[in-house]
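Standup notes, structure subgroup. Blocker cleared on the S-adenosylmethionine input:
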Amino acid sequence: MGKHRSRRPFEGLGLNSSGFYGRRKGYKLSARKETLLREVFPKIRIDLDSTNIPLDPQLLFNFRPKEVWLEIGFGGGEHIAYQSQANPDIGIIGVEPFLNGLVSLVDEIENKNLKNIRVFDKEISILLERLKPNSLSKVFLLFPDPWPKKKHLKRRILNPNFLNILNHLMLEGGEFRFSSDDASYTRLVVELASLREDFSWCPKSCRDWQFRPERSIETRYERKAIQQGRKNTYISLRKTSTL
Ligand SMILES: C[S@@+](CC[C@H](N)C(=O)[O-])C[C@H]1O[C@@H](n2cnc3c(N)ncnc32)[C@H](O)[C@@H]1O
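Run returned:
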């Protein structure tokens, strides 16, 4: 693939890089994980320096995926690995800058021989501003860092511009799934969505937001929140029109 200089397709949409405020590395990696990182990770890594801009995510895979999905901040990778196994005809992009989480997923990909995952190991906004418009069918943002303090609110991945960006990148009818154990974060998502005509929140019952959607699994942070007695909420928005 040819190399092109990046244009900024989000000019005017107000993408502001959220930056990355988490840890990039935790405990020391075992020799096996170091090897996985050196030998397996480069085969599934999205390297923006050697891809066309805008990047057509369909072309990242060794097959023509029926759809492309994106999981932002996959943590230990249990949800993306589950979706990969359950949906082998879908191409799934996972984004995670935290090395220890990323290598856990690489381990799973190797053990289960998963063929439909590609991984971006930097901050999400870098990838979002390079993706081809109307190319994603599902986007997952599961238990993002909540940054509840007022002075940290701007660190949240989901800010008022985020739904503009999703509108730009998602296909009509596509689904955005958000979950959190922080009520103020969920309130923000519902408030932002309620102001828009291009996304709809259609719970089948008024209790829907209390339950994890079907065809999904518990993530590590979700379990931790339950163990610590917090309430989790689940919001699923559908893109209904293109801006
Ligand atoms: C609270 S953890 C949740 C992990 C996982 N989704 C789960 O439910 O277990 C948030 C994750 O988002 C990642 N993250 C934070 N900021 C990010 C950013 N700007 N771009 C991509 N990932 C990010 C962190 O490294 C962390 O793994």
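Discussed briefly. The chain has eight helices and seven strands.
Next: hand off to the docking folks.
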